[in-house]
Amino acid sequence: MAAEFTVTPWKVEGDIDYSKLIKDFGTELLTDELLNRLKKHTGELHHLLRRKIFFSHRDLKWLLDMHDKGDNFYLYTGRGPSGHTTIGHMIPWTLTKWLQDKFDCELWFQMTDDEKFLFNDKLSLEETNLFAHENALDLVAMGFNPKKTKIFVDTEYAKTLYPQALRVAKHLNYSTARAVFGFEGDSNVGKIFYTSMQAVPAFLPSVMAGRQIPCLIPLAIDQDPHFRVARDIIPKLGYHNPAILHCRFLPALSGGGKMSASNSVETIYTTDTPEEVARKIKKYAFSGGRDSIEEHRKKGGDTDVDVPYQWLTFLEEDDAKLKSIHDDYRSGKMLSGEIKQILIDKLNAMLKKHQTEREKARKKVDKFFIRD
Ligand code: TRP
């Protein structure tokens, strides 16, 4: 029997079968052929692409065709500000930043303080708005191009977003929303409307420019259902559908599912101290090591389930380094405490740089915001 798992925009749980998701969601596998085509433009492939951490897409071929004809695209992604930023959130943003650098294109970044207020019983609108501004510091710290990056918070950009969201909402009926998102009779009506808000930035720049501009959305695959719904509507409004690149989830420290900002002590935040990082990895990271050192030396560690190894596949850019860690761990030469230490050092080096930039971002962040 297949293991149970759930992937919706609000819940990711269990042992996720990514090939099944491609089938269920109706997306396409990101093939080597398509990656090679992308590589012609970028010169190299980011490790998140090389390792198929971004594994699925919609309309990427079309996007590259348009690009080849001289129709440059913009990037769109976003964040539901339910808490501080985690390492998991930074995965799609890392590829987004790389794409912005390679294609020198605009990024429209949506902060959905409305969504997190509606979907989380415990959070007030003041809190989700505050987190939106905190999370923006992480984006700025990652080095997005200040001239080409627009960050907007839904409640602060509503005058522009709302009329466009209405156009989407008029084509979206309740049965569809219920079938895709599983709403019940007691779901608040704000939830039912929300997808319309997330759809808007996929065509807003075209509305503003008065011409069609292709859009590429890098996201974690749990967000795909919003766009699956939106893709039936956007062409009716007279715009191109967005292309999408889907990534896998950084596993939770305890293994399985994804790392969540709102419900777990097992999460690594961008604001964690080196001691907190070390403590959490040592205490919570699920190990594929064996019960005794003798057994480990004999059988080797299981990289398929070892969370520190899985995390290194997301974070260690150097293929040769990753391979030698893999080989040493699998053969039993490297112990689970050692691979955990490699991850701790990697995370702390990343976070040291990130936290310095994050402090500097406080002075720069205003330049990135658009409001109306
Ligand atoms: N709903 C997303 C979240 O909860 C935030 C978001 C808004 C988003 N627009 C997006 C994510 C576009 C990816 C792409 O995190």
Please provide a written account of the structure.
The protein is an alpha/beta fold and 372 residues long. Helix content is 50%, strand content 11%. The protein is built from 17 helices and nine strands. Helix 13 packs antiparallel against helix 17 and helix 15 crosses helix 17. The model has no long low-confidence stretch (mean pLDDT 95). Bound molecules: tryptophan. Tryptophan binds at residues 9, 77-80, 110, 112, 115, 198, 217, 219, 223.
Structure summarized in a few sentences:
This protein is α/β, with parallel strands linked by helices and 372 residues long. The protein has helices at residues 18-25, 32-42, 47-50, 60-68, 87-103, 113-119, 125-141, 158-169, 174-181, 189-199, 204-209, 224-231, 274-284, 293-299, 307-315, 319-331, 336-364, and strands at 5-8, 11-14, 28-29, 54-58, 74-79, 107-111, 149-153, 215-220, 243-247. It starts with a strand and ends in an 8-residue tail after the last helix.
